[in-house]
Amino acid sequence: MNRFDKIAAGLGQYGVDAMLITSQPGEFYAAGFSGEGVVLVAPGGAVYITDSRYIEAARNTVSGAEVLMVERGRGYIDLLNEAIQRLGVQTLGVEEDYLTLADYDRYKTALRAQLVPAGRLLLDLRGAKDDFEIHCITQAQRVTERAFEAILPVLKPGVTEREIAAQLTYDMLRFGAAKNSFDPIVVSGPNGSLPHGVPGDRAIQSGDFVTMDFGCVWGGYCSDMTRTVAVGRPSGEMIEVYDLVLRAQLAGIAASRAGVPGREIDAAARAVIQAGGYGPYFGHGYGHSVGLEIHEGPNANTREERPMPVGAVVSAEPGVYLPGKFGVRIEDLVVMEENGCRVLTQSPKNLLIL
Question: Does the N-terminal peptide bond of residue 298 adopt cis geometry, omega within 30 degrees of 0?
């Protein structure tokens, strides 16, 4: 699958004759293949350029574009300039959020076209997932859920955060994932107040909350999920906070639909936590889009004014973090639809006491 025509159709909106795609997610989105190559898309055609390590796979996979291989004395710049001349390109859009300063300077000096920042073209297209993309994210999510189910018997006093993270990674790989979508976050007891805490050698103790935030890649697309479970009997405050976070998440999900700005979704969840008296302990945004990268746009946070497009896959992950005591976060993935949203995550999110 490729999206060359869709990209070409959006060029005029950004005032460019063609789009140069150099990032790995952009390359995969455009060509359906990632071989450390570059892509040039114009109304008159598309060109995919890679090296000898990937050329056979590229020629077997990439359709709708001329597939070229760099050679000694005829590198990426040479092949790009040939395509620029052949396709009549004068202004060339680039992915400014992904280019290093060194690469930008090199392209600006060597390419025979004016470079124009136009990365928003690809980012906006990627924000609205099609059915194939949602299918891949769903499959990644199912693998993640199998790993969650498999880890529950492992969560006992004496097991360390690091051991849990390693088991989650192993299980996602053996259940069909290509890799983690990010390094798993596993925090327990007082470490739970660290939203992005790094798993360490702390052993779980009876009465702890254990928060696990993890996901995997399937078909090039990411999943993301967080569950907080109790190992042993939780305190009354722990149960109260868990219930509050769950109610906040459900309020955010109820407010989620295409056409609604992300800040309104965030506000719906945040209001519940503020009313419960824990507002100062919810510091991050309610959610972010997920796709080829684990963090994409549009977001569901206090700053996001863009309306959610149909097909956006967004995390729903409010949390409360009490320094020195514990933390709670619950995260699902939802798909934005015209009349609401569809929750992709199927794992139970009632408080599990193991």
Answer: yes
pLDDT tens for 70-79 read 999 999 999 9
Token pair of 181 as six digits? 């979508």
Residue type, 326: F
Give tens-digit pLDDT for 148-188.
Answer: 999 999 999 999 999 999 999 999 999 999 999 999 999 99
Selection from 304, 327, 307, 318 nearest residue 253 by Cα? 318
DSSP per-residue letters across 310-334: TT-EEEE--EEEETTTEEEE-BEEE
**Per-residue pLDDT averaged across 46-69, rounded?**
97
Report if pTM > 0.90: yes
d(CA 184, CA 89): 44
- 254 pLDDT band (50/70/90 cuts)? very high
Q: What is the pLDDT of residue 336?
A: 98
Same domain, 174 and 96: no
- Is 349 part of a structural domain of the chain? no
Residue 353 lies in a domain: no
Q: What is the CATH number of the domain that holds 71?
A: 3.40.350.10
Is residue 354 assigned to a domain? no
Rounded distance between C-alpha atoms, residue 228 and residue 345, angstroms: 15
What gap in Å lies between CA 328 and CA 188, rounded to an integer?
A: 10
**49-83: b (≥16 Cβ within 10 Å) or e:** bbeeebbeebeebbebbebbbbeeeeebbebbeeb
Spatial distance between the Cα atoms of 56 and 58, rounded to a whole number of angstroms: 5
The CATH number of the domain holding residue 161 is 3.90.230.10
pLDDT at site 2:
82
Helices (H), the chain: 4-9, 24-31, 55-61, 76-86, 101-110, 119-127, 131-151, 161-174, 236-255, 262-275
Dihedral sign, Cα of residue 72, residue 76, residue 78, residue 80 = positive
Q: Which domain holds residue 136?
A: 131-343
pLDDT of residue 102: 97
